[in-house]
Amino acid sequence: METLNKDSNIFLAGHNGMVGGSILKKLYENEYKNILTVDKKDLDLTNQKKVEDFFKNNNFSHLIIAAAKVGGINANNKFKADFLYENLMIESNLIHQSFKKGIESLIFLGSSCIYPKLSKQPIKEDYLLTGELEKTNEAYSLAKISGIKLCENYNEQYGTDFRCLMPTNLYGPNDNFNLETSHVIPSLINKFHSAKKNRSSEVEIWGTGKPMREFLHVDDLADACIFFMEKKNSDLKKLTNNFNRSNHFFNVGSGKDISIKDLAFLMKEILAFDGNIIFNKTMPDGTPKKLLDIELMESLGWTSKIPLRQGILDTYSWYENNYENLRF
What we know:
Distance between the termini: 44 Å
Largest sheet: 6 strands, parallel
Strand content: 15-25%
Radius of gyration: 20 Å
Shape: globular
């Protein structure tokens, strides 16, 4: 079995997205030299035969799965079939072909939406499948849960080293700023920037503003991926045995949450918008509170480094500098 080193061949699936782009940057910063990437137009990850051929024709021993169909509450609720089908196909093809090829290690990126809507807080990894999911993103959640269970069962049946990271709500440079499909932070940046630019008197926010959310800068997640990838399997097993938890699946978050209302006023301050904020209470709130328990990752020695205010400033600066090429 090959030991991971700076010359290891690593396939990063989904390198053009916000998460994948940050991981790619972090891999190079950490002096990994042989990173394989492929554009979506050249490889349809939902196509089983094409993925199989790609694995046969390329030399790599490690895989990071950052590829996924993602979106905010509106997109998740509106395009349920697309989110379920595409994510199931992407992860199934990549995980199964990794088993067939004998990949040494694999990292699958999930989402905190896998947990029950009314889960106890903070949310531990073993709260998975203990309650009903949030309906507005149920399809996406089910796909990610299936990916976790695929990794778990390949590990148990075949002794593979397939690992899963569950990040909390992500944001950062290269995010999707389309109001129809974006997550909350890029959506708010777009709304407040547009209102300021157009001299609007108000910005409308969906819901009551009461839900609590945890946010993580994408560069922190990328850092966690490299950190997690470099950990020996024996170290993971020793730690998780101490906590009586699964050794293949870990939460990644900041450990701090904020209400949507407070986030909106923070955004208003950072973007220097002088109008009013209107909360449209006829629109859904989604899950009332979602804060991850990050005890396992902290016990391994990893913590997030980018505070929310700094992260939003960083993201907004990137937004302004790249406005002409943004994903709207």
